[in-house]
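haha ok so turns out i had the wrong file open the whole time. this is the CORRECT one, sorry everyone. sequence first:
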Amino acid sequence: MVEKVEKTEEQWKQELSADRFAVCRLAGTERPFTGQYWNHKADGIYVCACCKTPLFQSVTKYDSGSGWPSFFQPVNDDVISERRDTSHGMVRVEVLCAACDAHLGHVFPDGPPPTGLRYCINSVSLDFVAHSPE
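then structure:
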């Protein structure tokens, strides 16, 4: 279980950039092929931009061709929560940070083995922490 982070909308507005607030708190979406991590290949871990909870390891990232960072699994099942999203005339599964409820993106059943899942995540909802060289 992750520890819940609870802040008011006003607190989030003060802490986050306008772009991050629009995506993470209002469930917006960045344009494909524009985010800083869609083609990022460094070794490390992607954390929630709002609360810094570790979400995805770089070894689970792959090029889905979608223009957004894509991962086949989170660091563990406890860091992600999911809910049904029927916006924009579609039925999808929204992915949120389990700690702070930040909107991250969506998960689709068209990913690679071993999970068959594609976590399609907005770059702006992530920060990256590089692994230190040994």
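The first helix runs from residue 9 to 15.
again sry for the mixup
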